[in-house]
Design goal:
Largest sheet: none
Helix content: over 70%
Number of domains: 1
CATH topology: Ferritin
Order of helices and strands: HHHHHH
Distance between the termini: 34 Å
Bound molecules: hydroxy diiron-OXO moiety
Length: 181
Amino acid sequence: MNTNRLSKKITKALNEQMTKEAHAAQIYLSYGAWAVGQGYAGIANFLFRHSHEERNHMMKFMEYIQERGAKAIVTAIPAPPADPTSINNCFEKVFQHEVDNTSAIYDLVNLSHEERDWATFSFMQWFVKEQLEEETLAQSLMNKIKIAGGEGAKAEALYNLDKDLEKTPDEGKKAEQAKEE
Ligand code: OFO
């Protein structure tokens, strides 16, 4: 008996998004490694924590695909982009990445709506909310670096920013908690 309740098209799109989330985890991981090399331990800590969160997103896709009786396909993850050239550039890259990921999430919402796959449509709402929070978080990074002086930020401002981000809670967690309620 066939227990698969996902269409081929949705399965492919969900699997691709699962890989995108794994890729996101690698991106944050690589930026974190770069930040360590630059001496910014606090910023690195923040990026590593976020990498972990992206990996959790990947797992959510995997679990959902399997719950619906389809096959989760683990593939190679594309290499992360080149290292940032500065903290300002790092945060710009993070912001752009999140905006791009939101578009990918919206494509999946549209597809599930088109196919009248309401289970997937409902599953994707968690990610719509999560992206809203992630974009807000990325925007707050942009604001912080802007206040610190942008590309021209002085060492002291960067030192304070590094200390600040060491303690900044990962605001994306809110969506995680909402799901658990
Ligand atoms: Fe998975 O939310 Fe960021 O990319």
